[in-house]
């Protein structure tokens, strides 16, 4: 889980919807969900209570809150990483169970009018998801989620990136050069290192540069050169990208959980209002979006 902490530290205001700009259909799905919420919230007497699962920096809550201007919502965000967010419209409020406090959420007895999640709930343990469905909803609650799909572009790209990262992390020549650089920095060793990195990057169709490896390596090498240091350590680059690889694996594993969540939902819901494979402008699968009403 450290990898999510470092992810959110480096991108505090980011959302996992970023990079999916080519999927306006996903935006539409969230807008359509907000319309259902608004319709059902008309004539409310007290604020609606929504649970944003694996909320990150609040993509799902933000989407819903922006579209629901007239319906007061109390959002609760839960996430195992240390991350939180705020909402622009002051009629809505948000509270968190995050980081070390995450497990405390499960000890509370409270239910929600809607469970929402954007690329999030599928990261939880199946037992945790079952608990949420069985104890945190009430009859008529909505379940609105956008989840990773195993056949999506995201899963495909993650697998390709893992292959590329492995070619970098396990390359024998680079390892030898790293040992040499850690014993004595020289421009010619640095050049050899960059040359080999370029070869690996070309072999992976630019994926190493795309993932940021090249930038990190250049930064470390030039720091040593500019500071006139006698040695250069590249361990840090290794740990950053081992971490990144773990995050990619967790994304792939999460996508495998989506069909299991749908199975669980079928047992505890009254009706399925939507189950859609969201596609981008080139018809590639981006995710699976579904809305259920609970029994
Ligand atoms: C792909 S991000 C999505 C975040 C946010 N919903 C968004 O759309 O921007 C996945 C989130 O799941 C959280 N996460 C990963 N594994 C988790 C777990 N086992 N329990 C709770 N949260 C988890 C991460 O910290 C991260 O914030």
From TrEMBL:
CDD domains: AdoMet_MTases. InterPro entries: SAM-dependent_MTases_sf (IPR029063). It comes from the Bacteria. This is Uncharacterized protein.
